[in-house]
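Now for my pick.
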Amino acid sequence: MNEMRAIVVSLRGDQAEIAPVGNFGCSHCNSGNGCGSGKLAQMFCSNKPRKFSARNLAQAHIGDEVNVVLPAGLLLRSSLLMYILPLALLLGGALLGAAMADTHAARDGYALAGALAGLLAGFAAGRAIAAGARQQAVVQSVVVGKAVI
């Protein structure tokens, strides 16, 4: 199981909207001696705090710092769903589009159209499957009541 700390931002029924706390890189990110992924994250990722939804089994309140647990395998399954499925459908669409072309000159255009259609279908299918998934992050315990946000 993967664990992280977060602060409860809002509550909706049995769901808690949480914002992760802390730095997710290794200790070398700020020293300049690491791999540089921290610098890439600063360049390409938004500085706005990210928010996620989790089941609130610990009955945490707004402002509480909590431990959030991801069920085993959820991160891997989600990664496969959001990366591999669209990529596989992109390649399949390109092959199907190229096979449907009437002439050799039109093959590239058909392959491009098929690839785009496959990519969009992959993202749509991934989103639909993820929306129907039963497993999600769970607020397991309250660490600190009413943390400073």
Summary: The chain has a mean pLDDT of 81. Strands lie at 2-12, 15-20, 52-55, 65-70, 138-144. The longest helix spans residues 74-100. The first strand starts at residue 2 and ends at 12.
